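yo

u said u wanted the structure for the complex thing, so here. seqs first:
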Amino acid sequence: MIFFMSSETNGLILVFTGNGKGKTTAALGMALRAWGQGMKVLMIQFIKGGWKYGELKAAEQLGPGFEMRQMGEGFVKDVAGEGLETHLVTAQKALAEARRDVGGAGYDMIILDEINYAVHYELVELADVLELIRSKPPGLHLVLTGRNAAPEVMELADLVTEMKEIKYPYASGVKARKGIEY
Amino acid sequence: MIFFMSSETNGLILVFTGNGKGKTTAALGMALRAWGQGMKVLMIQFIKGGWKYGELKAAEQLGPGFEMRQMGEGFVKDVAGEGLETHLVTAQKALAEARRDVGGAGYDMIILDEINYAVHYELVELADVLELIRSKPPGLHLVLTGRNAAPEVMELADLVTEMKEIKYPYASGVKARKGIEY
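structre next:
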């Protein structure tokens, strides 16, 4: 934690939203950059099954300063229908852990992965997320990813980037690639 | 290189463009994911001074499988005017190295950071970049970042995401943050 001492007391609130690839990927890059600075990073999963082998293996190798916390393994296809209950449990569990860790002092950066999507599908309440953001200690960097970010969340953010899909390989029948998609 | 053996012979061509934050950051995340898969990653810098302490320190700690190659240190403010010559030398050197390494077999993923921007400012010729992309060995993943990606480059790509600036902190006077910007 050599670089933890910092004159910068204001952590940023960053939002990566939009329908294109690169939201979680940019959060991973941001985590890597922070980790390189000696910061302690936590990434919490709000939608089950979104993380794949590549990033989990990387986090494991980066050690305790780079923690990716899954709320359950396996992929659940639909938020609607039979998958709903599983997704609700996952998102609520993620919210509870986010509350605890955002409120604590153990991390320099916390990434709430797919939280915007979870709000959009009413797996967590917008009011709870706004409260979570407002409760952020000054020094903590908070990153919120997922499509359909609520205007109220973007309003609280310092930086918002929309990842917009211009071209997507799967539309033309290219299958998922190791190291790219997982 | 445990995971180098792969049945997937088609590497992808990915483009991250647009005026928002997250292009190089997403490339970094992609590099981390690939590295986690045991792939060998090279990131080449086309615009001098774009990389900062956080990512360079991280790459250093990740070892030889994650190589970030700078073409010169220090920041050059303007592409126009007195900075032009320095930028031209940097970009041309980067192009030469990219040609060699894209043509070689040493890497599973090569990231040409800010190459789109370099083309836009005519630091490298579009025709050279198109030739470079077309010369890619089938198994290599090629990532091209930078705003103002040429339509011809996007045409050759499998995936294109536009990072669109919705809100940017520096506009409201927030200064660069350790672990976020550098």
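Chain B touches chain A through 64 residues (CB under 8 Å). Residues 84-103 of chain B form the longest helix (20 residues).
cya
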